[in-house]
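Reply to dn_fold:

You asked what the input looked like. This is it:
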Amino acid sequence: MSSSQAFAIEVHGKSAGIVVADHGGFMFFAADGAFRALDRRVFKQVGQAERAAVEIINDRDRHRWR
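and this is what came back:
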């Protein structure tokens, strides 16, 4: 039996997706269309995936108020 690591990523109370340990990194699986650009992207650390998800929301909000 193998053990896998998975972590949920939330941004401002919204479920962005999960990251699952995969060959020396963490693969992102988007839970919402807003995070589609990150889907199946591999990050070296969970924190990098979380920062990428936050940046997507921040970029979207910046463009909304222009």
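The first strand starts at residue 6 and ends at 11.
Hope that clears it up.
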